[in-house]
Amino acid sequence: MTASSSALSEERAAVADACRRLGAEGLLIGTAGNVSVRTGDLVAVTATGAVLAELTPDQVTVVDLDGTLVSGTLRPTSELDLHLGVHRRRGTGALVHTHAPMATAVACVLDELPCIHYQLLALGGTVRVAPYATFGTPELAESVLTALDGRGAALMANHGAVTHAATLDRAVEHALLLEWACGVYQRAAAMGRPRFLDERQQRAVIEAALARDYGTTHPVAPAASGSPVRPVQPVRPVPPVQEGQR
User: Which first-to-last residue range defines the signal peptide (predicted)?
Assistant: First the structure.
């Protein structure tokens, strides 16, 4: 097996794994939805008509950036134009398209999902809703590309949701985060008028996250049993002793 074919096999398996996870989370129902990942000038993408929650690597097709079949025996998803459009414009990365229930419901009502929680800043903040167009059409692909500009996610009016990230794992996490945020919005709206984070509050969150290296693990110093655990402090050099201080 060549290095190239080995890489394609790994990507096809990863796409199948991602689909099964999304299915287990309830974001993919039956054959509705599609997932892809780009490696170099090739894209591994789900086949049309496959049951995504049970997807196997042989149900993932490999195409080039023009859509020409490179590997696999099944026709790629009907949303191939959307996937290739994003991959051509954004370079390497992965795309997840779902008909997740919360996200789809919000996309049937709103023109954009406001920044209802600071975790949406991981997607770029406010999530735009691309205007409705028939599935699989160039018009839909173009409107979603526009909605994704500067964002990690977009909603599709009366259709579903799309997330994009540098890695497949991150694109899946973005899809889960978007579904969670849409659920929070729906529950908040049912109780009253939701509050949203304004630009000043969003900037403050970004500054705090950068200062604290938010979202990453940090080691702590060993502590005796029952003692509070304290973060490891950086070692600072001891200043030289000055004449007269001895």
Answer: none
Q: What is the pLDDT along the chain (246 residues), one digit of tens a residue?
A: 344 445 589 999 999 999 999 999 999 999 999 999 999 999 999 999 999 999 999 999 999 999 999 999 999 999 999 999 999 998 889 999 999 999 999 999 999 999 999 999 999 999 999 999 999 999 999 999 999 999 999 999 999 999 999 999 999 999 999 999 999 999 999 999 999 999 999 999 999 988 877 666 667 767 655 666 555 555 444 444 444 443
Query: Cβ atoms within 10 A of the Cβ of 85, count?
Result: 20
Strand 112-113 versus strand 127-130 pairing type = antiparallel
Q: Which one of 10, 25, 79, 207 is the catalytic residue? A: 79
The first and second tokens of residue 209, run together, are: 């996250």
Prediction pTM value: 0.84
Residue 207 lies in a domain: no
In a domain, 217, yes or no: no
Please give the structure tokens belonging to residue 51.
């049951």
* Domain harbouring 162, CATH code: 3.40.225.10
CA distance 123 to 151: 6
Q: List the structure tokens of 123.
A: 């997607």
Whether 79 is catalytic is yes
Q: What is the distance between the alpha carbons of residues 144 and 153, in angstroms, rounded to a whole number? A: 9
What's the number of domains the chain is made of? 1
- 241 occurs within a structural domain: no
For 179, the domain range is: 3-191
